[in-house]
Specification:
- By secondary structure, this protein is of the alpha/beta class.
- The model has no long low-confidence stretch (mean pLDDT 96).
- The protein folds into two domains: 125 residues, Thiamin pyrophosphokinase, catalytic domain (Rossmann fold, 3-Layer(aba) Sandwich); 69 residues, Thiamin pyrophosphokinase, thiamin-binding domain (Jelly Rolls, Sandwich), CATH 2.60.120.
- The longest helix is centred in the middle third of the chain and has 16 residues.
- It has a ten-stranded mixed beta sheet with strand order 4-3-2-1-5-6-7-14-9-12. It has a four-stranded antiparallel beta sheet with strand order 8-13-10-11, with no helix packed on it.
């Protein structure tokens, strides 16, 4: 499945870990001020998207979509929609979790958008890998912790196996996020599944 890597402008410092996720055949999309990470990531853009309110248009010999500053979609959301239209089915988001909580939550909602149309996506920040549960997900014991947070009123039918705090057909509510800081049993692979609701899985490095 073709994968697009969408790079936003939120802070990136853990380049060693993030580079472990990159592939030679990835399609790189840099959004506006995400362009500042080109050199450290050691990759070149295949597509640039932005309204250039936070970074000057570099005018590279690369396809560039210049957006108006007044619009409904963020630069990152528009970049995602373009990639979906072009047939990409797998996505890695970098520089999308950061100081601006409004942008962070807005970007995390893009994982729900992908789930609703049957596509895959994960987000990385300096500390964790973030995805949304669609069916069943696994966590190996190389991760220090993992947490589950619902972005719905509630997530139902949650089952956690091979973890310090197991759960069978449980519920996590938006007003009581009881799925924080679980641990994989050493030597095991933990699994998480949910029957309904939007459940975010955060694996902490």
């Amino acid at each position: 499945m073709k994968r697009a890597v969408i790079v936003g402008s939120a802070g990136i410092n853990n380049y060693t870990k993030i580079k472990e996720y990159l592939r030679e055949d990835d399609f790189y999309v840099f959004c506006d001020a995400g362009l500042k990470y080109m050199d450290e990531l050691c990759v070149k853009p295949d597509l640039i998207v932005g309204d250039f309110d936070s970074h000057e248009n570099p005018n590279l010999n690369v396809e560039t979509i210049v957006l108006p500053t007044i619009k409904d979609d963020t630069d990152t959301c528009h970049a995602l929609k373009v990639c979906i239209e072009r047939g990409f089915g797998d996505f890695l988001f970098l520089g999308c979790i950061g100081e601006r909580m409004d942008h962070t939550l807005g970007n995390m909602s893009l994982l729900i958008m992908l789930k609703e149309i049957g596509l895959n996506g994960i987000m990385l920040d300096d500390y964790s890998e973030i995805s949304i549960i669609d069916g069943e997900a696994s966590i190996d014991d190389s991760f220090s912790y993992f947490s589950l947070i619902t972005l719905s009123d509630s997530a139902e039918g949650i089952t956690i196996k091979n973890a310090k705090y197991p759960l069978e057909n449980g519920c996590i509510k938006s007003g009581f996020q009881l799925g924080i800081s679980n641990e994989v049993i050493k030597g095991q692979i933990a699994t998480v599944s949910a029957k309904s609701g939007n459940l975010i899985l955060i694996k902490v490095f």
